[in-house]
Specification:
About 25% of the residues lie in helices and about 35% in strands. It is of the alpha+beta class.
């Protein structure tokens, strides 16, 4: 599965289209709150876990998406209004953040969305 299109549909929402035909929205707030960089999400190195420390919500520009650049054929690097740009959002991370009704229902209902693979029995088990 590959990202085929990324476009801004409002100042606060992006629309992501995928090679499997799925298209769904994702808010810039969701993207920033789920930044995958080590500084925000934390990391584990040599069996020691270091917690992340994301910027406070009141940091000017935190939720302003300044740019988005494709990195290779696997991720997008977001640049935020406060200068933060360390996170690489892989296709898998971006797809997991889809806010369309079908993906949201799959997350809250315990099943896997159709793009996650597995068979119907696996989806029933969660």
């Amino acid at each position: 599965m590959n990202l085929t299109r990324l476009r801004r549909i409002s100042p606060d929402v992006l629309e992501l289209s995928w090679s499997d035909g799925h298209t769904g929205p994702c808010s810039v707030r969701t993207l920033r709150d789920n930044c995958p960089c080590a500084g925000c999400a934390g990391e584990t190195v040599l069996m020691r876990t270091y917690p992340g420390s994301p910027a406070a919500d009141d940091v000017p520009g935190k939720y302003e998406l300044a740019a988005a650049e494709v990195v290779g054929s696997y991720a997008v690097q977001m640049t935020w209004g406060d200068g933060h740009r360390e996170g690489l959002y892989t296709w898998e991370v971006l797809r997991s953040l889809c806010e369309c009704p079908a993906c949201g229902a799959a997350r809250t209902g315990g099943g896997k969305p159709s793009w996650a693979g597995g068979n119907a029995a696996d989806q029933q088990r969660g």
